[in-house]
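Predict structure. Chain length: 208.
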Amino acid sequence: MTGRIVVVGSLNLDSTLRVDRLPEPGETLHSAPVLRAPGGKGANQAVAAALLGGRVALIGAVGDDDAGRTLATAVREAGVDVSAVRQVAGATGEATIIVDRGGENVIVVDSGVNALVDPRQVREDLVAGDVVVTGNELSDPVVVAAAVRASALGAVVVHNPSPFRALPDGMPHPQVLVVNEHEFARFGECCMRRRSRCLPPCAVERWS
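Prediction complete.
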């Protein structure tokens, strides 16, 4: 066992706008000054695990722009191995986050070069790991490739299905799902309908 955590995930430049309340459709509100910071669900998970003492590597992509260089540097300085974060031609991913006084938020993501991460990169770069973390800010083929490779390594698969999509065909069932209350409800809905592949069969049976 290597004791290694590998995150196959996104890197985004986050722009956070704080407001008293979330806007209604069609409404314009003023916000506090925008806060720009390194982010992306993949990068955030990798940094959090590293700060807790984990041995962590991140597989992903950044653009050939200032944001990409800033993100790669920030994640590396947090103690994450970024040797498999590739710099590719294009714009780094961005996320706009609106947060109200109570902490409720809405997020819109422009994938940028996160959309260029492909299964071949995952197969080349994912060579060892005891825990492999995947997420839906990357494409379904990448998520499947990471989970299949993790299963072959005997690793535990942790999956974050955000933005929400049912588990893609060909993906081994993850041992751990990381969801918020909205995603949990969506899993329950599609499992009750049994029209989508969502959770392991035993979970579907328990919820029937």
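Summary: The helical segments are 41-51, 66-77, 119-125, 140-153, 181-193, 201-207.
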